Structure formats: structure tokens, C-alpha cells
Amino acid sequence: MSYLVAATDSLAATAGDVAGIGNSLTAAHAAAVGSTTAVLAAAEDEISAAVAALFSGHGRQFQLLAAQAETFHSEFAQALAGAGGAYAAAEAAAANRCRPS
């Protein structure tokens, strides 16, 4: 027979930590928006303007990917918290069924 042991307190704490990491990443990405999506040209020539546009484009793409990663991260934290709650509820229900009437 197989056994599974899950520390629901640890799952809840980990879910909180994961959510906190997500909040830190969101704040860091928000702080970097201006400097990564609106790169100024180093000089007033065509090459500098093209390089600035290139880096600004990469910054915009990064922000789009970061937003997708933030969504995934948030959903993962919610799933982790939900799994801990579901496991605790299942454990409590099983314990109640095992008690003599």
C-alpha cells in the first residue's frame, strides 16, 4: 500500500512565499517599464535611433513575456494553496470516517 504524507502547514507557507516572490517580481517589472521600453538614443543620428528602437522593442517584448509569466506564477501560487486546502479537507474527512461511531 502506498502512503502520501503532506505537511499542509508547509504547503500553506510555501504558497505564501511563492505569492510574495510573485509580488516582488511584479513590482520589479513595473519599476523597469520606463527604462526598458523607452530607451533614449545616445545621439541624434540614424544608427543611435535604430539601436534605441531595437532595445525598446526588446523591452516591450520582455514586458509582454513577463506579464504572461506573472499570470502563470499567480495561478501556480493559487493552485498550490488550493492543493494544500484540498489535502487538509480530505485528510479531515478520512479521519472522521475512521473514528468509531
Automatic annotation (TrEMBL):
<dbReference type="InterPro" id="IPR038332">
    <property type="entry name" value="PPE_sf"/>
</dbReference>
<dbReference type="InterPro" id="IPR000084">
    <property type="entry name" value="PE-PGRS_N"/>
</dbReference>
<dbReference type="Pfam" id="PF00934">
    <property type="entry name" value="PE"/>
</dbReference>
<feature type="domain" description="PE">
    <location>
        <begin position="4"/>
        <end position="94"/>
    </location>
</feature>
<protein>
    <recommendedName>
        <fullName>PE domain-containing protein</fullName>
    </recommendedName>
</protein>
